[in-house]
Design goal:
single chain, mainly alpha, 12 helices, binds heme C, Cytochrome c, Multihaem_cyt_sf
Length: 222
């Protein structure tokens, strides 16, 4: 009977399979690395904004509290972004003619809100709620980093499932007295880690926080 495969066809076939294997492994390794890379998590990335709003100037420099502009943060799911009239309470008096603020004045005059490019966002299928975190004393800085040092707003945390879960498994060390949540540099307890731990453990009990429930799928996927 005639040979179906010649010796050389057999070699070519083996080579083909070997190359396919390498391609598959290569893609897997690339995808794996990509999931953790800042390209996907966007940590540290800032986005261009229509107006170069600086938290560094307004929060650290002028000492404005987060809640002055993000009014929903204690009472609703969304922190919210400030309406233009909030900017104009000051900018109708200071820097009134500045070209940098031309779009702010236009927006105020026309009533069309500024369109900010979002940097802190989770996909629509994830349920997040600010008020529940903030009223339990989870500080802004845990999730948004040192906003007060950012000339342009950048993302500080990956906002991936594992990151949420790692705190939900053991929230105690992350809790503060709720009146301290907007404090960026809160060093009292950094000097006394034991006091912080004791406080956290006490609050987990006081609020009735149940880590077992916090890691269940329907907590965040409803
Ligand atoms: C409580 C008063 C106040 C409010 C509210 C305020 N600003 Fe300012 N802003 C200032 C002052 C004062 C400066 C000048 C800061 C400096 O030179 O250090 C400034 C500066 C700026 C600048 C110039 C660049 C910079 O950062 O120095 C921009 C742009 C700006 N503000 C945008 C905004 C926008 C947009 C809003 C609303 C979301 C806003 N500001 C709300 C007081 C305010
Ligand atoms: C004077 C008003 C003002 C104050 C005070 C302020 N912010 Fe903002 N914030 C803004 C504006 C305007 C934007 C949208 C532009 C941008 O992303 O920089 C914003 C954006 C953000 C974002 C990104 C939202 C997104 O998804 O794009 C976060 C997070 C944030 N602020 C947190 C804070 C925290 C935390 C504080 C207090 C330490 C604070 N802000 C104080 C005006 C303010
Ligand atoms: C436990 C983590 C966590 C804490 C604490 C937290 N945030 Fe957020 N923040 C998020 C997440 C997640 C989003 C994206 C929400 C979304 O996409 O719906 C977000 C979005 C925002 C936005 C964009 C607008 C909005 O409402 O979605 C602002 C502004 C903001 N946060 C400000 C604050 C301020 C101010 C504080 C403290 C008083 C704070 N956040 C505390 C996780 C947190
Ligand atoms: C630094 C700690 C921390 C991080 C990070 C964190 N959480 Fe939470 N989360 C808490 C605490 C504390 C509570 C309050 C639990 C309670 O009172 O029972 C909570 C409660 C919640 C609740 C309400 C659960 C209920 O009782 O119905 C949701 C939803 C939630 N978190 C979603 C998220 C999502 C989504 C992320 C990530 C994007 C996230 N959280 C990141 C600490 C955290
Ligand atoms: C504390 C909040 C939280 C809990 C609890 C949680 N998830 Fe998620 N999940 C998230 C967030 C945030 C994302 C978005 C991840 C991203 O954007 O990278 C996500 C994404 C996902 C995705 C999309 C694919 C992916 O991995 O990005 C799936 C599937 C998923 N979750 C399934 C589950 C299942 C199953 C459970 C229960 C075992 C669960 N989640 C519990 C927060 C949570």
């Amino acid at each position: 009977m005639a040979q179906i495969f010649t010796a050389s066809a057999d070699t070519r076939l083996r080579a083909f399979f070997l190359i396919m294997l390498l391609v598959v492994l290569g893609v897997a390794a690339f995808a794996g690395g990509l999931a953790d890379s800042t390209y996907v998590t966007m940590v540290g990335w800032f986005r261009d904004q229509p107006v170069p709003f600086s938290h560094q100037h307004h929060v650290q420099g002028l000492g404005i509290d987060c809640r002055y502009c993000h009014t929903g943060v204690e009472t609703s799911a969304q922190a919210g972004l400030p309406a233009t009239h909030v900017c104009m309470t000051c900018h109708s008096q200071v820097w009134t003619g500045a070209p940098l603020l031309a779009l702010v004045r236009q927006s105020f005059a026309s009533g069309t809100p500024l369109e900010w490019n979002r940097v802190a966002k989770v996909p629509d299928y994830v349920y997040f709620n600010h008020s529940i975190h903030v009223t339990r004393g989870v500080p802004c800085v845990e999730c948004h980093g040192r906003i007060d040092e950012m000339p342009l707003t950048a993302r500080a945390q990956p906002f991936q499932m594992q990151w949420c879960l790692s705190c939900h498994r053991d929230p105690a060390p992350h809790l503060r007295p709720p009146e301290q949540v907007t404090q960026m540099d809160w060093s009292d307890w950094e000097r006394d880690p034991q006091a912080h731990k004791d406080y956290g453990a006490l609050m987990v009990q006081a609020y009735g926080i149940e880590p077992d429930k916090l890691v269940q799928c329907n907590t965040c996927h409803r």
